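## Example pair
The file below holds two records. Each record gives the amino-acid sequence first, followed by its structure token line.
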Amino acid sequence: MSTSPSRGATVHDLVGIGFGPSNLALAIAIEEHNRAAPQHALDAVFLERQERFGWHRGMLLDGATMQVSFLKDLVTMRDPASRFSFLSYLSERGRLADFINRKSLFPFRIEFHDYLEWAADHVAHLVRYDAEVTDVAPVRGESGVDALEVVVGGQDGELAQVHRARNVAIAAGIRPSLPSNCTPTGRIWHNHDLLARLAELPPGEPKRFVVVGAGQSAAETTEYLHRHFPGCEVCAVFSRYGYSPSDDTAFANRIFDPEAVDHFFQAPDDVKRRLLEYHRNTNYSVVDPELIDDLYRRTYQERVRGEQRLRMLNACHVVEVQDFADCVRAVVEFLPTGERRELHADALVYATGYEPVDPLQLLGATAAYCQRTPDGVVAVERDYRVATTEDMRCGIYVQGATEHSHGITSTLLSNTAVRVGEILSSVLARTSPQQACSPPTSASRAAGPAPVPARGGGTARTAEATTDRP
């Protein structure tokens, strides 16, 4: 354990670990605060292991749309006049009128990713890319732990970099969930890596793909493979009798409202469990009705033509997988009868969802100061600060691993803008009670960030972790 930093050593007000949409939104909130109140500016830096910003690159499928309104972007629910809104992005890209003419609340996923990159470019001075955090060490002072050392690198003989902080914000994101007996190979992978893995397949037209899963990603993967490989058979395998539609109705969407977080946090544990179960069909293992209709229409048209290559193996599950040099062998069992069939495919894609990363795994010795609930999950306060022992003077904030405490929006974009505003207010209050977080002034909004050079030169009018339901 380190001792208190020497006089003159830089101690950041906040170090962010991870730089997906959640910590990007937090960086924007800090940037706007610093412009509005420079006398109370926060010293912040964000550390990201990727070499550049990226969010679900493997599923940036052409034609795929977001499942969340563009108004639930990085800022609008916190500050509708923010310069970092999706509408500001469209205006700067020269597509505002064109987007309005689409008459849709839902951007293309590729477009929304470009928006995220555009926003990340505007706060690039706060980010260190290619910086993988390997440890977070407590620094003890006279009254307890008054700083944290966030270590980057230092493995395999590499020289470590150390950033000291009074607060850390962990946005570790989510990781692909695979069956326990699954070992990814060149022909077996999670849909998270779909586009990259497809590009690595041997030359030649594939003859068959097998897609396992019944949620939105599984349906999108099935649709994409069927459309992009016109000579290929695509077999969708899922244990349900059919895809289940997502509930995107107005009343159900209230579970994503900011005030629903307050209600959920205050609720008894049994009520929390019931609410999560009631509203699973807004987010988990469900598919947009329009996509369900599209896939059914394709299967029916193929039956009419007598050339069926989109096959729905419903009420089935995969019981055995073997990987060979030239194919994958999958044994699929029909659940009602136990009948089995063999499928030989060019690739097997598991679209089996994601799971949150335990944020305490990143903390090293600092995790010993953090508390867990009786269920073993991290204990989190209403302001997204991890509950700690009394001698921990630093704030440890988490974004993403809070569904058990804050509700279903934990890993979604829906509440991101509001959540980071709450985290910023908490950090400011802990730094100095007088530094209460206030909305940006009109002048600061008008000033906004300076234009960012486009990757191809000129002004930024050209292109270029949490799920994207409401």
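Second record, same layout:
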Amino acid sequence: MAKILILFAHPAFEKSRVHSQLVAAIRGMQGVTLHDLYEVYPDMNIDVRHEQSLLLQHDIILFQHPLYWYSAPAIIKQWQDLVLEHGWAYGRTGTALRGKIAGNVISAGAQEESYSKEGWHHYTIHDFLLPFRQTATLCNMQYLEPFVVYGTHRLSYTGILEQAVSYKQMLERLRDGQPKIQ
């Protein structure tokens, strides 16, 4: 059974309709560690050694966050800049993450068709997540197909609950050895 670390970041979690249900669906799941970065580091003063230790204890690392302004919340960038050190995570001697799996779990306000060359945003979700994929590649990790909840501004409560069930099922497949690598 693989161990999954979810690096969760939502700067307005108390207002979130989608992520609150995604988190509720997976709380207490065996083999899954939910690590809320804004809760642990409200001042954004990240404990690099602690975070690196968490990474070493897990096989799969997922960044869960809303897609804000075509990117991730600030604390994720801060986390990456500090925790993924040269010589530890990447570089000639940086092999700590080699062979692990990385991915994203995101919510996007617009409908899926908006994220295309012809759509409103002119780029795909994969395009917006390219920095995560390249970071995984640099750290010698495999990158998963992202789990995306589209259309969150118009998604019904029932639709949100269905997405939460799908999310839990996806984590169960990952944990039990059935990853969908991109």
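Notes on the second record: The CA atoms of residues 140 and 167 lie 25 Å apart. The two ends are 21 Å apart (CA to CA).
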